[in-house]
Amino acid sequence: MFAFYADHFVLPLPPGHRFPMRKYSMLRDRVVRQVPGITLVEAPRADDDMLHLAHDPAYVSAVSMGQLDPAKQREIGFPWSAAMVERSRRSAGATVSACRAAWRDGVAVNLAGGTHHAYADKGGGFCVFNDAAIAARAVQRDGLVQRVVIIDLDVHQGNGTASILRDDPTVFTLSLHGEKNYPFRKEASDLDVGLPDGCGDDEYADALIQALDQLFARFSPQLAIYLAGADPHEGDRLGRLKLTMEGLERRDTIVFDTLRDRGVPVAVAMAGGYGNDIDNTVAVHVQTVGLAARYCAKWRD
User: Any idea which UniProt keywords this protein has (predicted)?
Assistant: First the structure.
């Protein structure tokens, strides 16, 4: 299975910044040690033409040149740097590459990505460019597929993704998220499932199964992009849900089984994770990558 990474492009964040930048290099190190059958590839850089598939050219230019309005830069949550721009371009390129590899192999992974709070004309919530929206349109432009589903299981609603793709009938957006969590102003996905604070393993699995049933009753995707956030974990400081490691394994298994049974290739992005203990966040992501690799092997059988 191919896994694309860009963790060596590190943002120079101030001391005490709450974004867990270190998790990406930790994840790649542990994947190398613990997940057999992985081919690691440095993420390519998304160029302007690719970014323009989902973003306004004026926004892309302002980000690239460091000319965003200070309020819009604060909304992203990172100080501007050339490294921020490069990493954001690489993260988008990684998801595009994972989609192309998944179309060929059944399953592929971006070891980052899931930047679903980025709108066409602004960023937000540590998201600069919306990799899933860009990737969906890139593979359509490639002529690989016509219909894509984005299954967003980060604990936070994919507001930017929903906004960008609102009027696009060729991309179905599904978001299963904490109802009372950020963003407090939600956008309308094609299918939104808001969950109560404290939601546990069984309640989450039931809601997910019902949501996937609704998805396939309404849409016939040829490719899936799966945002497998670690932040529904019970140890996440921003998540407010109570999924255990076993519950998250069950979540991923439900998604992979459902897609494999229907012959839908899937590109996986890691999305959010803000554990009180960063090792727990990384463990959730490693578990997802390990499951993805096993499903990739099954896909070839």
Answer: Hydrolase
